[in-house]
Write a structure and sequence with these properties.
The complex is a heterodimer of chains A (about 425) and B (about 150).
Chain A (H helix, E strand, L loop, with lengths): L1 H17 L1 H10 L1 E3 L9 H22 L7 H10 L4 H29 L7 H23 L4 H12 L8 H9 L6 H33 L5 H5 L6 E3 H26 L25 H9 L3 E2 L2 E2 H17 L1 H4 L6 H26 L4 H4 L13 H37 L2 H6 L5
Antiparallel strand pairs in A: 1-2, 3-4
Chain B lengths: L9 H27 L9 E5 L1 H4 L6 E6 L2 E7 L5 E5 L10 E3 L4 E4 L4 E4 L4 E3 L8 E7 L2 E6 L4
Antiparallel strand pairs in B: 1-10, 2-3, 3-4, 4-9, 5-6, 6-7, 7-8, 9-10
The chains are: A mainly alpha (about 425), B alpha+beta (about 150).
Amino acid sequence: MIAGGRWTAFRRWLDERLGFEAVLGFMRRKTVPKSGHTVWMYTGSAILIFFAIQVVTGVILAFYYRPTLEEANASVARIVTDVPLGWVVRSIHSWSATFMITFVFIHLVGIWLLKSYRKPRELTWMSGVLLLFCSLFFGFTGYLLPWDALSLSATKVGTDIPRAVPVVGDFVTKLLRGGDDVSGETLSRFFSIHVSVLPLALLAVLALHVFLIQKLGMSLPLEAEVKKKRLPEIPFWPNFVYREAIVWLVLFGALLSVAVFLPPGLGAAADLRAPAPEGIKPEWYFLFLFQTLKIFPPKIWFLQGETVAVLAILAGVLFFFFIPLIDNKPASRKGKVLTAVAWLFIVYALAMSAWSLAGPKPAAEAAGAAHELAAGPQSAGERTGIYVFLAWTWATIVFLVFVMRVKVREVDALHAVGYFREKNGPAKE
Amino acid sequence: MKLKTSLYSRRKFLNGLLAGGLGSLVASLLYPLLRSVIPPYKEPDEVRLPGADFNGLEPGDVRPFAWDIKPGFIKKNSDGTFTAFVGVCTHLDCNVSYVPAEKKFFCACHDGWYDADGRNIAGPPPTPLRRLTVVAEGAELVIRKETPA
């Protein structure tokens, strides 16, 4: 055991300098309540997985992408047709964004309806709302970068919306666009925001979010807290992590499969002076806002409809951010009313999105693939290779999931006989 | 009553100076930062187009032109004069198209409609299309920003 001895010595050497044993000990004693609501607790780490995938694929894409009026569309075309496996990397980046936003919404809805934001977790919720804005802004800025007709129109509309806000609105629009109009300046700064501002902002807020989650521990369901019921708990490490890892693996396999079989195409380069294509739509997660703006009349009483709509959206956002402070008596009647409001909003967003989807399809799709650059394997070798790779990945995932399930049973049995408590000391509290 | 000692200590005063100094430094950095994030852009005062391109227009016909980086439309009126519009929707800034069959301008983003004179007639647009002045100067059509009346 000489190697083991050296390893132990090295660990001790590091720990004297970093003090990480305190953190590891904390993680070992951390517990997760086990109930019907535990499934919501898998959603946060799924978002992290997709974010990590975004970082890796985004760095590769940024190697080839050029954020200028002349080259943007062509450089994306090059990624899709020329760069080895570039179409898969772009497809994963695009789909992972969709998966990430989906899980952000699931995470948010779960926490909203379970009221996990209640005291003392108000700041965890607020930092989470900031992370939501970062994610949506990531999606919005990334959508422009391929620089085709759809992305141009979506950006024109999206960056014009702040203008309706009194006092600061005009400046915000100019700041986003790099001038009065969407132009090459907008493209360059969206790229800068997408690859440097937002990652830094998101990581900073994420650090606070994750710290607060560790500091405050997992929230108990409201009814358990009210009735002072003690829920069974499992150790975070390793019992919960093994369970989470199964979810990660399956989600990763699903993402890879969708990305290989449904790679996004690329429209022709945007023309600043061309009319907006018919049936334009933003990314799916903005559809409910888009449809809301569409149905607002030009004048309401003596105010511009657009201004009213934008101010209403702004008020909604503020309400959303401050929910933990507004919903301060979650078990009371007021709390129940606010739950009903949450459900109303969810139904509204779903209905508006469905309505928007039922409308006319983008002209590019209707007119056939004339201007659309279809993505896919560039050679027979690449085609075979990617399918073999996908099959291999799934085989590995199935194998790993099987082993993880065995491990879950093993560590649950160990937990039941109190093995971890003896090894790591009692759980906190 | 006269106090023997000041309620405001030297320490508090210094802290105030320090915070105030740092605060004004940060605040004065804000202006150049915000100033530098918006590049200069000036809309052209005028665009000159060869008049020959528009001689063949029948009254009521509409033809696009480039108003710098924005689309523009020139319409020939029944009295032989021209009217020009900036082809940008007044709702949320999308570029509009002219639909000759209906003699209307259409914005696809949120289903906005304008008549051939640029008046907003249906959908969310709050105001008419922006107008430009058209003057024939020799063989050229000169399109200028409309001077506010």
